[in-house]
Amino acid sequence: MNPQDLLRTHIIASTETALLKLAGELDMATAPLVDQAVADCLAGGIRRLNIDLAAVTFCDAAGLGALERANRASAAHCTVFRLAGMHRRLRRTFALHRAGSLIAPAMTDLARLRVTAQRATDDRVGTSTHAWASRICPAP
122 phi and psi, to 5 degrees? Predict the structure, then answer.
């Protein structure tokens, strides 16, 4: 079966915000579709990425991994990341996989994004990069 038959992605974007609507199954076969849709959104230079999960009927660990990658990619682009449409089944899946940080109110301001970007860079190069993080995520 074709992954596009299992998960539909629809992007509604403005100059500042993108809404990525997902409908169907979010799993190992369809996670690359989410990765690509998120990359397409971030390539537009948006400041906010909202992912609507209201129509997601199934999500496994691979699907959660795609959402975690979307969160990290958003932070690297200084983009606020939010999940919407979290129904009870999805909240349970997130809790079982200890992915609750994705649905917490984290990543809602540029100050936190700056810290995340700095930590990601520190992990890669092992040095303090506060100046670098400040340049890519300037304070409002």
Answer: -60, -40
Torsional sign, CA 30, 33, 38, 41: negative
Q: Contact, 68 vs 36, CB < 8 A?
A: no
* The residue count for the chain: 140
Write out the E strands in 1-140.
Answer: 7-13, 17-26, 48-59, 80-84
Q: Give the pLDDT of the chain (140 residues) as one tens digit per residue.
A: 788 889 999 999 988 999 999 999 999 999 999 999 999 999 989 999 999 999 999 999 899 999 999 999 999 999 999 998 888 888 888 777 776 666 644 444 445 555 555 665 555 544 443 444 444 554 44
Question: Is the Cβ–Cβ distance between 27 and 53 less than 8 Å?
Answer: no
From the list 86, 39, 79, the residue with the least C-alpha distance to 59 is 86
Terminal-residue alpha carbon distance, the chain: 46
